Amino acid sequence: MIEHRSHTYGVLGEFDTEHQLITAAEKTREAGYKHFEAYAPFPVEGLSEALGLKRNKVPLITLIGGLCGGLGGFFFQYWCNVYAYPLNIAGRPLNSWPAFIPVTFELTVLGASLSAVFGMLALNGLPQPHHPLFNVERFSKHATSDKFFLCIEARDKKFDLADASRFLQGINAHHVTEVLDD
Questions:
Q1: Is the separation of the CB atoms in 36 and 152 below 8 Å?
Q2: Nearest Cα to 48, choosing from 37, 58, 35, 57?
Q3: What band does 2 get if pLDDT is binned at 50, 70 and 90?
Q4: What residues have CB less than 8 Å from 173, skipping those under 6 apart?
Q5: What's the pLDDT tens digit per position in 18-69?
Q6: How far, in Å, CA of 56 to CA of 158, rounded?
Q7: Per-position b or e across 21-39, b if 16+ CB within 10 A of its CB
Q8: Closest CA to 169 of 10, 12, 3, 2
Q9: Hey, which residues does 152 pair with through a beta bridge?
């Protein structure tokens, strides 16, 4: 069913206002497209809901990284003091957990911060030195200044180059352009 050239990334439509972009995103989702993105020069309230974006997974990744770092730090100190190199100083217990708290805290922060950064990069598909949309001249000139864009990607099961172009024109997109993946 997918009738597009192998080097086609998708179809890009340009809009003048953020309200047109939100309406276009809602209509695109209602039309059954699953793989599409919206681009705006500033944050647009309600665009995430219009795109149907799911909840972010970075907080969970950060929590898991922090727990692993903290538990790893605590049990490493426990292993060192109780099993690997036990020192009986003045009859104190080998498992002196209050002394372990500073290192445990620091490793919790380190584990959480590293997992947050690397989790965010992985979930965003970064680093990506070049994106196919920058092959479109109007996108590279206007995306960060004054125009709003919606791109239906070719990897969508419903994607057909002619149908997607007609669909974008039908929802009042200006300068509908095929985006090549070269």
A1: yes
A2: 37
A3: very low
A4: 13, 14, 15, 24, 150
A5: 999 999 999 999 999 999 999 999 999 999 999 999 889 999 999 999 999 9
A6: 26
A7: bbebbbbbeeeebeebebb
A8: 12
A9: 11, 36
Residue type present at position 40 = A
Which residue from 129, 131, 178 is spatially nearest to 151, judged by alpha carbons? 178
Query: Rounded CA gap, 163 and 137, in Å?
Result: 23
Per-residue 3-state assignment (H helix, E strand, C coil) for the chain:
CCECCCCEEEEEEEECCHHHHHHHHHHHHHCCCCCEEEECCCCCCCHHHHHCCCCCCHHHHHHHHHHHHHHHHHHHHHHHHHHHCCCCCCCCCCCCHHHHHHHHHHHHHHHHHHHHHHHHHHHCCCCCCCCHHHHCHHHHHHCCCCCEEEEEECCCCCCEHHHHHHHHHHCCCEEEEEEECC
State the Cα–Cα distance between residues 25 and 38, nearest whole angstrom: 7
Structure tokens at 67: 């727990």
Question: The whole model's pTM is what?
Answer: 0.78
